[in-house]
Design brief:
This protein is mainly α. The protein is built from two helices and no strands.
Length: about 60
Amino acid sequence: MKIKELLYNIAIVFVIVLVVSVIVTYLWNLVVHGSGSVDWDISLVFALSIGIALPLSWALRVKEK
């Protein structure tokens, strides 16, 4: 896997995870606390960590084969 493809995969996974995480934290706060607010800190950290970890694991798995 080339570095350009890896960076593209990281960006795509980051955006998807960020959107899902924002929706989940908004709905969680709306249901549990009664106020619809987004926890940006947790959403960004989660998206960054998953956005880097998943494409790297995919790249290492392809490299082993």
